[in-house]
Amino acid sequence: MEFQKQTIRQLSEMLQKKELTAKELTAETLKNIKEKEKDIDAFLTICEEEALQEAKKVDQAFDTYASPLKGIPMALKDNMVTKDIRTTCASKILENFIPPYDGTMAARLKERGAVLTGKLNLDEFAMGSRTEYSAMKPTKNPYDLTRTPGGSSGGSAAAVASGEIPYALGSDTGGSIRQPASYCGVVGLKPTYVRVSRYGLVAFASSLDQIGPITRSVEDAALVLNEIAGYDPMDSTSVNCSVPDYTKALTGDIKGLKVALPKEYFGEELHPGVKEEILKAVGYLEKLGAKVEEVSLPHTKYGIAAYYIIAPAEASSNLARYDGVRYGVRAKEYKDLIDLYEASRSEGFGEEVKRRIMLGTFALSSGYYDAYYLKAQKVRTLIKEDFAKVFADYDVIVGPTAPATAGKLFQAAKDPMEDYLLDVYTVPANMAGVPGISVPIGFSENMPVGLQIFGRHFDEETVLKTAFAVEQEVCFDTTKGARR
Amino acid sequence: MRYETVIGLEVHVELATASKIFCGCSTKFGQEINTQCCPICLGMPGVLPKLNKKVVDYALKAALALNCKINQETKFDRKNYFYPDLPKAYQISQYDKPIGEHGYIDITVDGEVRRIGITRIHMEEDAGKLLHESDPTSSLIDLNRTGVPLIEIVSEPDLRSPEEAREYLMQLRNILKYIDVSDVKMEEGSLRCDANISLRPYGQETFGTKTELKNLNSFKWIAKGIEHEMARQKLLLDSGEKVTQETRRFDVNTQKTVLMRSKEEAHDYRYFPDPDLVTVEISDDWIKEAKASMPELPEKKKIRFMETYQLPEYDAGIITGEKELAQFFEDTAKEFRGEAKVISNWVMGDLMRLLNSENKEISDCAVTAKDMASMLNLIEDGTISGKIAKTVFEEMFLTGKEPKTIIAEKGLVQISDVSELEKIIDEVIGKDIKSVRDFQNGNKKALGFFMGQVMRQSGGKANPKVVNELLAKKLNAFEIKE
Amino acid sequence: MKVTMETVEHTAKLARLKFTEEEKTAFLGAMNDVLNYAELLNELDTENIEPTSHPVPLKNALREDKVWDYTLSREDVLKNAPAEESGGFKVPKIIES
User: Fold this and answer.
1) What kind of architecture, by CATH, is found in domain C5-43?
2) N or C: which end of chain C has fewer CB within 10 A?
3) Residue B90 contacts A where some CB pair is shorter than 8 Å
4) What's the pTM?
């Protein structure tokens, strides 16, 4: 049995029917991970012993767990804190950090009997879109090992696409779940801001960061969201509102659904091959009875400019705590306290992280705050209003996840700004806090293409419903990446 | 040249909550190093703050007590700077929407009432502590105090002398103690004070260049520290030099202010709204609730004491200066049949003397208000003399016994019985005919002499009023047999 | 230009980072690229626009004043410390106090 092709739903049924134990599944999964890792490099830490232990525990008390995730292996992006398991954020400065606590995701999944197999690669502190800015190693795209899996949740997307694990959690600050999901031909959901608790997610840009699932089917995304969404008293920004059963939304019936197609998402930057696939998918929506109309999100083009002020500003403050005093790596040599700080931080952070810290520090500094940070926060209001206006008349907004498919590894632009512009379609959802999903719909030059669907705040149901309908229509084989 | 001093104070006060401002660790003072920390106050990767409601309750109460306008939409901001006692490398504080603004308190200096403006009061988290006693090349960090809730109270530059600064701080401390939001102990660091000081020639409108004087952390050194800084600035100005804007610290050992950092090295705190926390909306009901829980404040109480108890302003000021003392006074007055001034005399006299000599607070005094009143009533009805009462009171203070018990045990009841007193008087007079003659010849001093003799004979228990009458009668009637 | 070499140096100081001359030049370029791009924002009149600091605004997330049991043992507090002594985190001597 090739477990690596099974969805959560399928594995859950097998476990339920006792055709398989959690331990057997976990052992097989670990074996498979080790095999695949030779090519993929998605994992930063594999918790073999802990996983087998956990699986055994779940088997022993199988019926006491209510969740469909019980006994099923998974992995977390390595910016989610796990007690007693190294949490590095793919940074040298945290390479030896063993948290004394579990973040909310680790704790919740443990409670539900999910089996943590390891921690997944990312761009250092989730800053990047290629997983090349990992201080540990680059991860490869399962569809083409010479290509990037995208980022920053590249480890998560590659691990799921390659069949190493049935699902993973990623985090999305400007597209970091959706873009790698799109590049790797899997489903990536960024829920509404604060739908899923951020407690235990190592902060990059607090007002934009959001955790979500990366899976091989829309149904699995709904299943995982069911388990991870909801109020958390530890997160002040968490919303105390009920969590529906998202799987109930997956009816396939989207007759009468009002779909908005923003013209700003089909500009010059959009690769023709991608565009073709997207329009094909839009055609399916129409065929299924949805009403598709072109709309405008006029402030889309300002999204990147505002994002690359706001995110670095918050990051510069969030990353100030890594100073070599209480945890993490301290420089070997230093003259005095200030030198200890400067040496530890300069040696511990990679170039991209330092670039963003510099940018953010500058944007907040005396004399520049109003011109940059405050201005960007105001533009953010305009972007948010764009979405609100469209959502007054439409149920979902649909477009490409990324302007192109996965590029070659180590072919990042010399000028970082050029790379930043590739986040143009994903950043606005973070700015506005709306949910967004990337669902694989086809290929362009043999690399997967993702369709992006946005919904209203806290309306993941409609987003999933739409994605499900598309998924059923396009019949994209998400196990293709595992066939190598 | 003569200069006017301009002083503004920044006071940090630790709020007396059970848990920290953004996590549930205990705020208890004096615990073992690094035993009151959790991932949140340690600023570990991934943690988030969650605001303690009581901090807002207390800050709100303080803002109202200091006559501030309440910002009903208040928020938290990050103040970014690196220091080893600050685990996140930013302090969660309040920048442009502090909980209270535009308040004041009235202080009395040399009989004159001055209104001192309060610019703002805001909530923030405390930092940890640096310990220096280990080896000379390193410092140790204790993060127990990290995250203890603070309010910072910033005054307008309305203070004009070290005495005013001291009085303002005393008054501020009293108010905060009255409303029960802090134990305001300078020696434990729950009340800390920095001062902004500048000089300007009399008559000049604009302010001179100020320096910030840090760590004036005892009432003893506040006036001293400011005086030294004033003298230093005067010397500079007199010699034609300029005061530079800088941060200084008062060194208790050398009795000098020393430079900490110049303006060029001043921090750029890069304040911005903390995205991990949400707006705090203080509803009208919340304010109403806070007002309802507010006790009578010292200034109001003082005026009421002057009116209700006919106390002189001086007495009323001292007694209402401490909440517990005022309570003690009022409880005593409820039971005491005489004039309230008698109570204030005793409280400000014997009671405060004993408290001071034993280094005790009224709250840990063994004498209850009820016993105080009953002792004063015993003086009033003539059971004991005022002189005996002093002995009785000392015993009450030491043992906590009731005055009646002490009097009975020591046989200190006043002798007012005429026949008993007459016996003593007869004996005393009979012994000194010469003085009797003096008296009868008009020397009134002799009466005092006999009085003393009777008191001595009775062991101080004779009722002086009765003795006085009897003595005069007896001496006049005494026939000297030649 | 937005940023000068001096600004890069000042910013690095604020951020507690140190760079070689070569790195400084690279950061100068990268910062200016982004800041020049951010000029785009000035096309928009935001005079009467409120800033958004939370995409989903909430109010009054408060907890009761209770001591909890997440407090760590000192061993756990110091477990990740690069240097410790007598129960405290150890750093080079600080002169200012």
Assistant:
1) Orthogonal Bundle (1.10)
2) N
3) yes
4) 0.91
